[in-house]
Amino acid sequence: MTSPSGELIVFGMNFRAYDAAHHTWNIKWLDALGGTWTDLAPNELGGATFDGHSITYAFKEPVAAHAYTRATYTGVSPNHFSWRGVQSNDGKTWSEFMVIDSWRVSD
């Protein structure tokens, strides 16, 4: 992700693995700029949940100005998904800060 001026501000990769024994997802973010890992679905924040339509998880924010981020994936199809990010400083009051619509491009 770059800023409007073109500065690189986020660079990394998500890793996801399903733990069949515990019926939970392990979701980690590798920050390639800082060389650090972040647990994106810690149990103390509810882990990753699926309500039949959307996947949601919350995590302690390692670099943003707010303390927590909650991410929700909706409208998932073979060619599209929406990502909604909400932020909080207390884990109780949340406000939207970003919505991303992603589309698969065919060659």
Search tags:
107 residues; 5-stranded antiparallel beta sheet; 3-stranded antiparallel beta sheet
Description:
This protein is an all-beta fold and 107 residues long. The protein has one domain (12-103). It has no helices and eight strands. It has strands spanning 12-19, 24-31, 36-39, 49-50, 55-60, 68-77, 80-88, 95-103. A five-stranded antiparallel sheet has the order 4-5-6-7-8, with no helix packed on it. The protein has a three-stranded antiparallel sheet with strand order 1-2-3, with no helix packed on it. The radius of gyration is 15 Å and the shape is globular.
In short:
The chain has strands at residues 12-19, 24-31, 36-39, 49-50, 55-60, 68-77, 80-88, 95-103. It is mainly β and 107 residues long. The protein starts with 11 loop residues before the first strand and ends with a strand.
The number of distinct β-strands equals 8
Mean pLDDT: 92
As for the number of domains, it is 1
Please describe the biggest sheet, giving its number of strands, its sense, and whether it closes into a barrel: 5 strands, antiparallel
**Gap between N and C termini:** 23 Å
- Quaternary structure: single chain
